[in-house]
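Reviewers of the previous submission asked for a worked example of the structure-prediction workflow described in the proposal, so we include one complete record here. The input consisted solely of the amino acid sequence. No template or homolog information was supplied to the procedure at any stage.
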Amino acid sequence: MEPARPLTVLVVHPHLAKGDGTARYLADVAAMLAAGGCAVTVESAHSELELGASVHAVDCFPSSERVAPFDFALAADADVLRQTHPRARQWIYAALDWYDQDIDRERWALDASDLVLRFTPRAVHALEVRHGCSLVHKSLAAVFVPLAFERAECAAPRHEASPPELLWVGRLHPRKDVAFLLRAWALVTEPFRGVVCGTGPERSRLEASARSLGLHDRVTFEGLVEDVAPFYRRAALFCTASPWEQYSLTILEAAAYGVPTLGRRPNDVDVFNSCPEQIVSGETGALFETPAELARQIDALLRDPKKRRRWGDRARAHKREFTALRFQDALLAAIRERARDRAK
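From that input alone, the workflow returned the following structure tokens.
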């Protein structure tokens, strides 16, 4: 009997930029699928990311290569998925930046896809609520862990800075609501230093806001940081106020370094995020609703270094429940099941 041919997977994204979390996710997923025995092709007009020797990279988007239909096409954008639609037998929609998608185009992607990738059941539910549909039979809820953080020396000793540092990492975009954090930090009475790592369209506005709030000598904007490990190792607390994060990789990263996180509590009205699934309130961090509540939590924790260390240790232990290999296994099992169903 001839061995079964490997499944072929096309991963498409217009620009695989270093500072783009979606690009990093797709690059890692491509590497995981290739490691699992799939024949993976990645198409992008420009890539700044290492894709690995086992991944076939095509520096063109959309590609003019004429090849047999792929078994699967994977994209994180509804319009990109539509462009790849004729080139694959089945379609995988990684609904990451779902709040940025046109609702009609995204509904098309959900209906057309054979598999919808989300990180948690709550994230699947948020999509179902938005579109009034059921995704039970076509969704995979599996926590993604970046390969870089599997390899990183996250267990290296931590040395908190003095004064204690409050850290935020990510892209400075309105949907991240860093302005909320600045308003909270302006209310903190204990000594601290705020550190914002990342760049994006909001940077100049946020820097102006920090000045107007009197934070010019307490908050620094570091810009795009290639290696965030030193910042995590010396952070006292990690803060996030994003109302729409389906699963925050930076909360996962903070936990890997033993940093407790303060995150925004969802209300399922204008705040949909995964903080309750990532933060065990009172054990690995805490949840807040208003800037004043966040400021009070920060003050209390800055006065209690023993609690910070205890929560940080528990956060690191909690993170160990999630690994890149576990995500890889779940994804490979899902696409193999759909390939078998199609072949019947």
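Residues 188 and 320 are 32 Å apart (CA to CA). We consider this example representative of the routine output the project will generate in years two and three.
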